[in-house]
Amino acid sequence: MGPKLVSKRSEKTGILYSLRLLPIGGYVAMVGEDEESDNPNAFCNKKVWQRIIISAAGSAVNIAAGVILMLCFILASSAIGSTVIAEFNENAISSSCGLELGDRIIEINGKKTPIWNNVIYEISRDGTEPMDFLVVRDGEKTFIEDVRFGIESEDGIDYGELDFKVKREEKSFVNVIKHTLHGSLLTVRMIWESLFDLISGRIGFESVSGPVGVTTTIGNAAKTGLYSLLYLCSIIAMNLGIFNLLPLPALDGGRIFFQLIELIRGRPVNRKYEGMIHLAGILLLLLFMLLITIKDINGLIN
């Protein structure tokens, strides 16, 4: 945004690249994206599979940026948490339900827990009810049923309360890659499940944040240090990428949805009607963002 500092048009494709005074975000306007064109390089004249790749590219870059930030987050940490129980909190409920010191947690409720973050997430999300653990104890797998945890509430939502600490692991190349990949996959899963929780009503509208709320959260994370900021930015980057892939009008996922229909039918949906649907989607999205922004500002005032 802002005044153009430098620009160059490709002689081969005719694409104009420019750098603005305030390089905040990015914008791509493609010939033939929302209209017909005789230009052979126009978006509308590309093959369907090429258009699908182009439409998904932005989200893919967001997700890739999130993975890179996750790697930086792991590298910035002083040590890495294992899944081996090292210490129980005072009056820990889980220790009276079968968990023991030295247990290495490998599954919770049938879900793999390759890293410490998985353990935290499973207990936080489903620990309000009894949980089944699969652990390695004295070199053998042991199944423990009905492990219970305390319950804590925040913004009207109940969470399982973690009541033990784990051993730390020294960083190594293998460990860093393992935690980066599994941490990224867990983040993607958290985002998807949060969307379903919002639709199902498990979490309310008050838990959704827009630009104002996100900026406030980033500011608070920055005050606590680079470590927290990197993790938050990683989640935001992946969240943007995944949200943009949702099959909703005006989003890249909505365009991909129509492109898949074209791929199946062998001919495109009438561009006039598709354009109207995307326009309606933009208006609804702007209205939704306005409501969230008002909610965030009201939260700051109060």
Quick check: average pLDDT?
Answer: 83
**Beta-strand share of residues:** 15-25%
The overall strand count is: 10
The spatial strand order of the largest sheet comes to 5-4-6-7
Order of helices and strands: EEHEEEHEEEEEHHHHH
Shape: elongated
Most strands sheet: 4 strands, antiparallel
Q: Which class of secondary structure composition applies to the elements?
A: alpha+beta
Terminal residue distance: 33 Å
Number of helices: 7
- Low-pLDDT parts are none
Radius of gyration: 24 Å
Q: Can you give the helix content as a percent range?
A: 40-55%
Topology:
Layout: E1 4-9, E2 16-20, H1 48-76, E3 80-88, E4 104-108, E5 111-112, H2 116-126, E6 131-137, E7 140-147, E8 150-154, E9 157-161, E10 164-169, H3 173-200, H4 211-224, H5 226-244, H6 252-265, H7 271-301
Describe this structure in words.
The protein is an alpha+beta fold and 302 residues long. Helix content is 48%, strand content 19%. It contains 7 helices and 10 strands. The protein has helices spanning 48-76, 116-126, 173-200, 211-224, 226-244, 252-265, 271-301, and strands at residues 4-9, 16-20, 80-88, 104-108, 111-112, 131-137, 140-147, 150-154, 157-161, 164-169. The strands form 4 sheets. Strands 5-4-6-7 form a 4-stranded antiparallel sheet, covered by helices on one side. β1 (4-9) and β2 form a beta hairpin. α1 runs antiparallel to α5 (226-244). The radius of gyration is 24 Å and the shape is elongated. The two termini are 33 Å apart.
